[in-house]
Amino acid sequence: MKIANNSRSMINREHFNSSKTEFLLQFACTDKRFLGSHSKWGWGLSDSAAVDPEGILRPARIDSYERVFTVGPFGARVSFASQQQRAFNIVWALSEKNMVGEGKRVAVVGGGLSGITTAAALLAKRCSVHLYETQGRVLGIQKQAAHRFIHPTINFWPEIFEETAFGPMIMPTTELPFFDWYANIGSTIMLALREEWRRYFKPRLSAHNISTTVTSLSEKNKKVTIFATGRGPEKSEPFDVVVLAMGFGPERTVAGVEPVGYWESDDWYDSEGDGPTPVVAGIGDGGLIDALRAIHTRFEAGRLCAEVVRLLASSSVPALVRDLEGEVLGANLDKDAAAEAYARGYARIYELDTPDLVKDVLNTSLRKPPFDPVLLVGPAAFPFSKTAAPIHKFMITHALDREAVDYQQGRLEDGPILKRDGAEEPIGDRPKVVRRGPERNFGGVIATDLVDKVAQRQVVMGDLLKPAPYGASDWMFPGYPPHRPADPIFAKFRLDKAEEYIKSALGTPLSLGVSRDGVVTYFVAPELGRTDLEERIPPRLFGVRTLLGDCPVIHV
After folding, report:
1. For residues 15, 17, 23 and 29, what is the CA-based torsion angle, rounded to 10 degrees?
2. Residue 142 · residue 263 · CB < 8 Å
3. CB 111 within 8 A of CB 198
4. CA–CA separation, 307 vs 292, rounded Å?
5. Residue 196 and residue 188: Cα distance in Å, rounded?
6. Shortest CA distance to 41 belongs to which of 215, 158, 185, 188?
7. What is the CA 506 to chain-centroid distance, rounded?
8. Cβ atoms within 10 A of the Cβ of 18, count?
9. Helices (DSSP H) in 12-125: which residue ranges?
10. What's the rounded Cα separation, in Å, for the pair 140 and 134?
11. 417 CB neighbour count, 10 Å cutoff
12. CA 338 centroid distance within chain
């Protein structure tokens, strides 16, 4: 894909700031080189990364160390599910290289979701696992995230989906050896996963070092020594392998703006749409989500995004977005050229190909006028980045078209003040939200230049939703059924979660049985007058086949 050399000069920046799609649309519709044929492009989210052990370990290994690895939060798309999959892949690869196994002492630094997943996978390999967590409990960061809806696959829409009779569907559940979860509010997800951790895995740790901060690492003679401080004096312990699962790190802050993290509860949001709209700094997923959250009265923590994806399933939009993302990512454009290409492409798709029903749903959800548009501030020429999820870019396009968001290229600086075009502008008393991304420092344990090298390798590798070539028998754990969806024991083990999901998403009961063709199946009970159930039911829940219909007499 190529953009006309003079395309940037054709765009009037001030005109774009008026947020009218038609201006971009005229160029998107006339530049045939940009439109292309909409043939399928790969995003490199899984295909580009080898699933052999060394192919997995190479981007995970920290330079200057042989036995220190990181799950790493870097990738073309970031999600909890992909972080979990990376954790399983890394432990499988370490096992294949005989670096972990029975009797090996392994430290896991970080008690978030990727950390406890790594620890559980290592326990299944019969390692002596020592967990280090700075906070006083595992899964602590998201424990108060009642304002964030988390979905396992929505960030990968429309590249990763399941084809159904009603169009492509994003899967609402994970299909992992341990710690499965379904799309829900963040705090609810973490509560359930913490209970699973406490019941099955925490009792088998060799050491559970909470409220303990790892300060440095040292590797010598095939051993890695961890230095850590906690409730007592600094202590050191040697390990055969160390896995860092520390997430991104603290978010960047701006002096004069209260530092409220993405997962922390905030007081600026007004679900009724009566309060002042904020200034939002950042055009990654965090910034776009909070801008959308500020203008939609029916955002429901993010459920609106999933509903829009569902309503788009039978349209041409998923295929067009997939092509657009592939073309931009495959063209190696700088941030401004990529942002402009996205602006043109999404404007065209929204205006020409989006069903009226989807536009009506989004319009109905908007705050009732009059209201000041959200001021969205970012470093690129347009509010689109390569790493932001396509659904958020699609929805911000609607917001720009409706003039609910006013985008300014610039930077929110200490004060706070808005710096743009070499000038400084005050921004008044409106609420301010900073989503400029986290510090890349892994808590200071690893030098910044080494973290940057890991980030470069992992972004190229992409987020691995694709599992390594392991089987259910690779993750045997006492009292925990192996992930074999055709096995009635596993299906019954996950039945409670499946029932919870169907009840919350569809409001209908679910049962477990064996279908007439002999397959273990979850059955969603039909309801008189409900014509939408069949198109809303995913083909699988946690890997178990799911159908609409009365459960046969044969129950499990």
Report:
1. 130
2. yes
3. no
4. 14
5. 13
6. 158
7. 23
8. 11
9. 13-17, 21-30, 32-35, 53-60, 80-96, 113-124
10. 10
11. 17
12. 21
Q: At what angle do helices 356-365 and 303-312 cross, to 10 degrees?
A: 170
| The amino acid at 164 | T
**Average pLDDT of the chain, as a whole number:** 86
Torsion angle of C-alpha atoms 291, 465, 95, 249, degrees rounded to 10? -10
Q: What is the per-residue pLDDT across 384-421, written as a single tens digit (0 to 9) for each? A: 999 999 999 999 999 999 999 999 999 999 989 999 88
Radius of gyration of the chain (CA): 24
- Residues 6 or more apart from 535 whose CB is under 8 A from it? 164, 165, 166, 313
The pLDDT score that the predictor gives to residue 64 is: 92
The owner of tokens 């004096």 is: 233
**Residue found by looking up tokens 């970031």 in the block:** 78
Angle, in degrees to the nearest 10, between helices 53-60 and 448-461: 140
Cβ contacts of 477 within 8 Å, gap of 6 or more: 120, 123, 124, 178, 200, 201
3-state secondary structure 89-109: HHHHHHHHCCCCCCCCEEEEE
User: Residue 1: pLDDT above 60?
Assistant: no
Residue 387 tokens read as 């790493």
Per residue in 269-306, pLDDT (tens digit) is: 766 767 788 999 999 999 999 999 999 999 999 999 99
At 271 the pLDDT is 66
Of 401, 68, 500, nearest to 244 (Cα)?
A: 68
CA distance 38 to 24: 19
Per-residue pLDDT of 413-444, as tens digits, reads 998 999 988 889 888 888 999 998 777 778 78
d(CA 284, CA 274): 26
Contact 502, 536 (CB under 8 A): no
CA distances from 319 to 160, 305, 462, 482 (A): 11, 17, 21, 36
Closest CA to 302 of 312, 311, 291: 291
Give the integer Cα–Cα distance in Å for 340 and 524: 45
Tokens of 19: 């947020």
The two beta strands, 417-420 and 423-426, are: antiparallel
Q: How far apart are CA 461 and CA 70, in angstroms?
A: 14
pLDDT category, 267, cuts 50, 70, 90? confident
The per-residue DSSP string of 177-201 comes to: SS---BSEEHHHHHHHHHHHIIIII
Strand, coil or helix: 135: coil
Question: Amino acid identity of 351?
Answer: E
Render pLDDT for 367-382 as a digit per residue (tens, 0 to 9): 998 889 999 999 999 9
Quickly tell me which residue has 């063709």 as its tokens.
Answer: 517
Length of the chain counted residue by residue: 556
Helix 21-30 to helix 335-348 angle (10° resolution) is: 90
Do 102 and 255 form a contact (C-beta atoms < 8 A)? no
Identity at 204, one-letter amino acid code: R
Token couple for 58: 């190479």
Sign of the C-alpha dihedral, residues 77, 81, 83, 87? negative
